[in-house]
Amino acid sequence: MTSLNQITRHEDDSPNPIANSQIHFGSINPFQAPVKRASKVAPAPSIARSKKAAAASTKNPLFVARPKNFTIGNNVQPRRDLTHYTKWPKYVRLQRQRKVLMQRLRVPPAINQFSKALDRNQASQLLKLANKYRPESRIEKRQRLLKAAAAKAEGKKDVHSEEKPFFIKHGINHITKLVESKRAQLVVIASDVDPIEIIVWLPALCRKMGIPYCVIKSKARLGAVVHKKTATTLAFTDVRDEDKAQLATLVSSIKTSFNDNADELRRQWGGGILSARSQSIRAKKEREIAKTTVKL
Residue 192's closest CA among 117, 119, 97, 282? Predict the structure, then answer.
C-alpha cells in the first residue's frame, strides 16, 4: 500500500494544472479582485550593453577632463563675431542713424523722389557712356598744352586745338546755367547728396525746362567720372556722332521713368516703416482684436 506522502508527491509532480489547483485551492480567494502589478521594462539587448561597456572601457586614463570656466578672470573666451560690440566711427554711426530716421519718419515727396534711382543695367550703360567723355586730367592737360606750345614755337598750325572738346560737365552752378539755357541734353543727379537742399530743386527745374534728368545711386560713382571724390550732378551737352544713338536710347527710357512720371513722384510719400519689433507688437494686437471680434 502506498502511503499518503507518496500520493501527494505524485500529484505535485503531475503536469496537469487542474490537479495542482485542486491541491492548492485553499490559498486562492475566488472572490478577490485581481491585483494590478506594474509592468517591468524589458532590459536592453545584450549587444547594446556590450557596446556601452566597450565604449566605457576604451577611455584613456591619461586624458583627464579639464572643463573650462569662461567667467571673468578665468579662461579666455572663444573667438566670435564682435561686430555688435564694436565702437564704430562717428560718420558710420551718423549715416546709420540717418538711414533709420529716413525709414521711420514720413518723408515728403520732394525728398522721397531721390530714392527712386535707375536700375543696375541702365546705370551701368549710362556710366559706361559717361566714362567716354571724362574731362582731361592734369597730366593730359599738361601734355596737350606742351604739344600746342611746341607747335606754336615751330610756327606750325595745331590741328587738335581747333577741334571742339567733348567733355561731360559737372558742378551744380555750371549745370544750372546749362539747364536754364537748354544746352544740357541729359542731367544725372546723385541720390545721396548731403545736405539735400543743394539739389532738391533741380528735378523741378529740369521738368520746367524740358531737360531729361535721372537719379543714380552714390555720388562717389559720379565723382569717379570727373576725377573727384564725389560729384552732385553731371550733364551731357554734346556727344560724338557714333554715340548719339546710344544717348537717344538712354534719354527715351529715362524720360519715361522720370520726366513723364512726375505726377506720381510728386504724390508719393516715403518712410513710415516701423521696426521689426514694433511690427510684431502691432501684429500681436491685431490678432487679439480679431479673436475678440470672433467671440462676440
Answer: 117
